[in-house]
Every structure is written in structure tokens, then in C-alpha cells.
Structures
1.
Amino acid sequence: MTIELSVITPTRDRASILARCLDALATQSLDPSRYEILVVDDGSTDDTPAVIEGARRTASCDVRGFRLDQRAGIPAARNLAIREARGHLIVFVDSDEFAPPSFLATHLNCHRQRGPNVICRGPVIVTHSLFKPFDTRGGILDMSTAYFDTDNASVRRDHLLRAGLFDEAFYPYGWEGLDLGFRLRALGLRRVFLRDASIYHYRPEVSPDVLPGLFAKEEERALTALRFITKNPTLEARFATCLTPIHRWANAVQRGFGTVHAGNAVAWVDRTRKWGLPGLARILLAGVLRSHYFDHFRAWEAAARSDANQRDHPDL
């Protein structure tokens, strides 16, 4: 049977989580002869190659692994896989996400029923469980209005090629999906939201060991946000990246005007969870991370202005 669907999963240094991700993708209700999984290892330093090889040997569907010896970034990893894909339909699944058994069949049916000129998207539900992620119930905090989001989306391969693929300047990651989404929308594609195509995004419980990694991601997103709004100088881009006075004011409220900060975020998250308010815990943590993002965006923006002034006035 011809492969109709190619799942694209970039990964880096997530061996144990990737194993669970691939297990879920390999046990779909869709006939395994109709889909393939392409995993691109973006220069991992852990056991990722062994995990991919193990999945390749045991999965009923085709699992194809590719390795970048040095980190090239998520956009480059996804582009490599798109070029290598055999399916006419591409489904994006990140390596820290778990797909329920009906996930791929639901995406495939959407394109069959709605026609070729659509992007299919589904909910992304945050879970803290590696072993029982599908027991997690989604809520209002899991909602997204993004036109295109690589956490959970499917689109025809030929549309991705026509749009020019992901911009690899968004290194190592951040906003590349929104940028590509603008170009896909310009092709006239219609977004279809599938409520029954949920995927579960694993996030470990926040702790002093986990927090530095979360801050590092916000620093990377701040740099690529500057590239995004420079490339797309519109109010829509500013709102998408939360870089408006409204968002800054809302963030101040979200953090209790400084009551919750990097130094006590873990304690506040633990406290609110003990109160039975996990939603509030997520809001407070997101506020602290967003504040870190804003700070680093301002630093990157100031550095860019300084570089521009030096180029324009080399004698100063």
C-alpha cells in the first residue's frame, strides 16, 4: 500500500521522552503501511540514536532516522524531513508529544473530507505524565487560536514546498511555524480545527533543576522573536509574539506586579498546586517565563540597534 502520510518529528537530547513519543506514533489505528515516521536528530549528545534505531526495528510502520552531526535548529531539521518525505500529507509532531491511537487517522480523514486546500489543527493538551498522558483533561489554558502551529498540524507536502518551507534563520527555534503559517495563508489555505485530534504535550513538573532550561528556551525565543517581527513588521506579528504594551501590562498583573518572580516561582507553583489550583500554577509560571522573555527581547533589540548605528555611522 502507498504511503499517504509522513509524520515529521525533530528532536534533540530527549531520548527517554522520544521513546514514549515514538511508541505512541507506532501504535496508531491507521494501517501502518499507510504512514511513515521521519525522526531528525538535531545533534543530540544522549542516547537518541539508539532510541531511533530501536523504534526502526520494532515498529510496524516505517521509521526513518536522519542525523545532523551539529545542531542546525528545528527549522532545518523539519525541512530535511519534508524533502525526504514520501507521503503527500505531512503531520507535525514534536518529540515531547504523545499521540492517541486515532490521531493520524483523524488528520487523514480531515483532508479527505475537507479537500486539498486546508490545514488541519487540533488541541495541544499539557500533561505532566509520561506513562498515562491520555488521562489528562484539557482546559481553557490549552486553547490556541494560531492559524498554523507545528505542535499539532497537518498540511500537504506540495503546499509546504510552494510556501518555501521553514525559514532556517529562526535558529535554533521559535516563531518559525507562525512565519510559515503567514505564507501558507497567502496561498489561500483554510484552517480546519479538529477537536477530536488532540495531542498531549509533556512538560515535567517545575523544579529548581527544570527552571534554568525553561529560561534558556525563553532566551532563544526572544532572539527569534526579533527576527520574526523584523521580517513581518505588522501589528498581527506583534500580537502573535506578545510584544505590545497590552501584553506587558497583562504580564505585570499575571505576576502580581512582581510578587512572583524567578527567585520564588517554584515555591509559588508548589503552593498553588497544594491548594488544588493547578491552573493558577500554570498562569504564574507562564508569567515569570514571559517576563524573562520580555527582558531578553529588550536586550536583543538594544544590541541590534547598536549594531545598526555602528554600520550607519562607522566613525562614531
2.
Amino acid sequence: MTEVDRTLPACHFRILPIGPYLAGSMPFDTGCQWEGVVLLLCLDGEATIRISGQTYELYRNRLCCVMPLHVAELHPSDSFRVAAVAFTFELLVDFPLAIKPDLADRMTNTPCIDLTDEQVDIFTRYHELLYLQYCRREHPSRLAVVQSLVFSLLAEVGYVYSFQGVVPSRNRQEKIVNELFSLLHAHHQHKDATFYAEKICLTPKYLSHVVKQVTGRTLYDWITFFVMKDAKRLLQATDLNVSEIADRLGFSNSSFFGRYFKLYAGCSPSEYKNATFKRNCSMDL
């Protein structure tokens, strides 16, 4: 008899119960590298979210979609309540139905949209059912049920987006920044602006100018952000030693990596790893 697959790995799916936003609970603010979609529906209060350098306001009945390979920073108010779910497209890779191809473009180009009360009710019903099924860890078809509900929720989001009109085309500068972020996700072991400029067929000076103009941060700020984000992930979630992590991130030696990490994190890689280990141990008690 074939063993039933009941797994639903955290690397492909996250969900929170409806309520106040818990800092550090969604993939984009945990320090890990997430290549999936995050859906945030504001039910009360307000927040600002910065997605790849662009700032958006969140308020009651506003849905925000953070797409793969996009960097996000959420700043909620004390009264901010949200229905939040995150998933990768890999979660649906074996699903027999397909999402409309233009939906990803619509969600990328217009990450925040306002919902009607009826649409909010439908979204929250799906969310509540998703959370219920996710928590049923002994259900023999848990993975399949969650996959079906995620697909259905995406179909509803696509229906809402169908009323948003023609997808606005991104201007040249925004396309350059999006291409840069894709490169940074894949190649952030390269810390020289020239590497990225050559990949996009631009001069380093012009690329730096575009990045600063669109995001408000320098190119080197973003390179450092991606390097540190991955460094923290490797220190937190793997058994690699500091020397192995330094090598993976393209540093010539562990001493140089240690100085670099301490400059931006305020502590050494070993201190950071030990602090993470102690915190995780205390959470398991």
C-alpha cells in the first residue's frame, strides 16, 4: 500500500489566523529568501508597504499582492488586522488546472486593489477554510485540499483583477529595476555593480541612477540587502559553518565575510548564529 503524502512544507505555504499582524510571520520579513506570492487583505487599521522601492498604503478592504522576486517591507499600525496567506507556484505545479497567464502580470503591475464588501467576505471565507484545513495535520488528503483551496482563492483574485481594466505597462526604468532584482536573487554573491550593469546592458553609472530614482535607495544598498538577507538565512536555517557560508556568498575568506557581516548586522556571524540557536531552543521548550 502506498503511503499517503500528508506533507505541506513551510517553504511552500504559510498562513496566519485572521487578526493583528504578527511581525516576522510572513516570508518577506523573516530574513529568508521567499520565491512565492504573499496575499495581505487589510480588514481594519492601516499600514504602509514598500514593494521593490515603491510605497503603497493599506487600509480597510484593500488587498495587497507581493509577487515572487519582489522585496517588501511592511509597517503596520497598532490597529492593523489582516488575513494573510503565502504560497509558492511550486505548490500548484502538479495541480491539473492552470491559472490565467495574465494574472501574474496584473498582480505585479497593480499590487494593491480595493475590494467590495462582498469580495472581502468571499476572500475571508476562503482564508478561514484554508487555515482550518491547514491545521488538520492528520487529514490524509491535507496537501490536495490546501492546493485546491489556494487555486480557488487565486481564481477569485483573478476575477477581481479582471475588473481593473488593461494592465498598465511598466516604464523602462521600472523594468530595469525588476530585472535587477531578479539578478540579485540569483547572483548576489557578486557585489560589483559592473556585473549587474553588464547583464542588463547598461553602464554602472546609469544603472545606479535608475535604481536610486525608482527605489530611493542606492544600488549598493540593494546588493548589501540581498547579501545580508541570504547570509542571515544560511546562518539561521542551515548547518553550514561560517567559512562555508562565506564561500557560498562569494567572499574571498571567512575573515572578510565576518567584517562585512558585523558592519551591517552589528555582531559577528558566529554570534548571530548562536543567538538564533538559543532563541529557537527556547521556543521549543
3.
Amino acid sequence: MKKQLVAGLLAVCVAVAAIAGCGTKEPQQSGSFASGVQEGSVVEAEPSVDADISEDASAVGTDLSGEYVRDREDISTETDLDVTGREFYKEVLDLYCDYATNGWDENGEESYMFWHNTDGAMGLDDVGYYFCDLNGDGAPELIIGSVKLMYAEWPDIAYDVYASVDGEIIHLATSWERNRYYLCSDNSLLLTGSGGAGLTSWEKLVWNGGESLETIKELVYDHDDYPDSPWLYGEGGIEWSEMQHLTEEEGMKRIDEWEGKCIDIPVIPLRKYVEMK
């Protein structure tokens, strides 16, 4: 995926700048999912990822050979995370099944990328779900995404991300045209955002069990405010004005490193979920 994300994002910036206007610096990262409380307890989330994410973490969504697994047709290989996740996130999964069957709510919290700028509104065979453990506490988090590349303008995006905080389902993140989340092999998320052709950002995000994702590293290309030295880098969610300036070579090196950790999300089609009910 080397350089694909940055190339694709910059292309989108140019294409949509005239109709979308300038974006804001802070992308939407969280929101609550109404009536998402399930009976029963879930494992208490404990912080498990610090500012230096392990380079040796095994890849999410890979088989033993290291090859990415996209189509998970054989549900006999499902994990305990899958079984627990389907039960706990039943209300969310049922909602997406309803949208995929009867039409998407254009005013809903869910990513509009399921029905906007695609070849057609996505159905049960097009939308999929995937359970992962973002913070290492043994409890599942839910990612909703696209099953096949042909159905989405931007493949392998985590369209929507859900987690549990004190038994309540939280809508952690939602992607849109200029604000996209990617799952990484170290269980972090990469957020790419844009505020126009001269402003692009990349954020390494982790979830430590709270109500929102946390920014641990951020790279910004801000030609609008810093035309002579547009590459900025910071850690811990600091203000852009406090970031250090990088050379273009240093900036591109970090993009290559972060892109290299983005993986294909092996989502299971919603139709499989319906068949198992």
C-alpha cells in the first residue's frame, strides 16, 4: 500500500475542494450510539498501548503464513471474539442489516460512505463486520466496512468503529470522504484527514478503554500556514503550532512507515450474520 493512501487522499483533496469547502482541524472521532446498552458484563478495559506501539505485534486479519485474509467464508474458524462480539453488538449489527436491506438513513450517525459516492447503496453482501481487540483487554471491538473492493471508492477503510465503555456501546469513529480510518497491524488506527489541497494530516490513534480515541503521533502537511516548511510532527495530541518541522523526506518516511502497517480488514458479510441468526 506504499504511498497509495497519501496519493489517493491528495487526489481527493483537489477533486472535492470546490464542492466541500475547507474542513476543520479537528476531525470527528467519537459519538454515542443511542440505546446501545446490553445486559451482562464486559471485561473492564485497561490501558495497554503507550506512545511507542510495539513493532512486533502480530498482524490483525492474517493467517499463519502472514497472508491477508479478506474473504472469511469459512465461519468454522471463527474465534471466541466473534461469538462474543455477535452477541454483544447484536443491536448494532441488526441496525446495519436493516439499513442494508431497507435503505440507509442519510441523517444517521453511520458513515455516509455506505450509500454516497459508490456504484449503488451497499447491501447485505457488500457490508461486513469484523471483531478485533483494540486495547488488549480480551473484549471485542466492532469494525464495520466494505466486503469487496469494487463496492467502495476507498477500500479497506474502517467505515465505523464501536467499543464498549462500562457496558455501553460507544460509536468511537466514523469515516467520511475526507476523514478516513484504517486499521493497522498493531491494533492502532491511522486517520487521514484533509482540509483542502494545502492541508492534510495523518494521526496514529489508540483506544485505551475510554470514550474516545487518543492521538499518540501526528503528521501534518500544512502548506497554507507554513508554505516554506509545511511538514509538521508531534506526539500526544499537541497543538500544531507546537509541533516540530520536518523535511519532506522525513515526512514521507513516516507516511511510508504508517501506511505499511495498514491492513486489509477481513470483514464477514452481513448476510452471513443473518444466516447464523
4.
Amino acid sequence: MARPPQPIDPKRRTRLLATARVVFATHGFTNARLTDILRESDFSRSSFYYFFHTKDQLFDTAFADGLRELAGYVTVPVVDKLTRDTFWPALTNIIAGMTAAATRPDLTAVGTMFHLADKPHSPNLTEFEHTIDNWTARMVDRGYGSGCSTPPFPHASTLTLPTRLPPGSTRGRPPPGRPHGRPWRTRSCPRMLGNPTTPHDKE
């Protein structure tokens, strides 16, 4: 009688997926070497093929795991519950969470993986893209409809901002020479997103 398959050790799985995200983000999917990922994560090749089968599946699983980890840093508001008073604080809190997540290279890698030109078919990435597009469209409409924001550029361009501000990218950090932290998040980013004024303008 065959033994039932044994579950993967959680620590080994976490180490493998975190390493895979960094390698994929650094080298792209095509040039990422499975040998390097397995060596850096101390994960045997036989175990890899037993649990993940292909590099494509590893990419998909690593991306989904990165999103799960990011959820521990970023609080996504319910659009329909946002008011004029809570709209911008909710968005700046998202950016604050992304900034905190950017201290981890494997989470910075999630945004890079999303934008890879050679990324493979990834059901989890595709689902996330549809979800974020829908959520962003509703947020933009909520902001415009409630008078919380004014469109500084075409509506379609606004919808791409969340996926063009991955954690740790140069677009998601203060410009060179600017201090890190709350002032940039609460002043410059809201203006870029369409808020004509911020509470700090009154200081």
C-alpha cells in the first residue's frame, strides 16, 4: 500500500518561494535558473519536482505567496464604505503599508514579477490583475464622484497607478534627495493621484 504524500515543511516552502521571487525579479523568468533557486534555498531537486513540477508553477505559487505576505502589510479599504473624510487617509495607508513591505526584497520582487515582459501564464497573477483593475476603477470613480479628487490626467492612466507603483520600485519611493516616511506619502503621492490639497498644506 502506497504511503500518502507528505506535506512540505512550511519553513522550507517559505524559503523556496521567497528565494524564487527574488531570482525571478532579478533575472526575469526566462533567465532565472532553477538550479540557482534550489541551491540558494537549500531545496532538493527531487523535492521540487514532487511538489511543484515545473518552473511555471513555481512562478505562479511564488507570486500568490507574495500577495499573501503583502496582505499582512497593506490594508485594502472597502470602496463603498469610503467617505470624503476617509478616502485619502485610506490610500495613504496603503502606500505606507507598501513602504513597510519594501524592506523585504522578496516582497519588492512581487511588483517586479507582475511587470516582467517574459512572465509565464500565471493564473494567480491574471486573477490579481483583474481584481486590482476592478478595484481601482471603483476607487477612481468613488474619488471623482465624491469630489475627493480631480483628474490631472486621463481616467485610463489613473487606473494603471496601483500596478505601476510596486513596493520598492523607484515609482513607489521618494525621489532622490527627498526624505523617506510620512511627509512624502501624505503630500506628493496624493497629489499625483489627483488630490489637489492635503492636510499638510495647512501646516
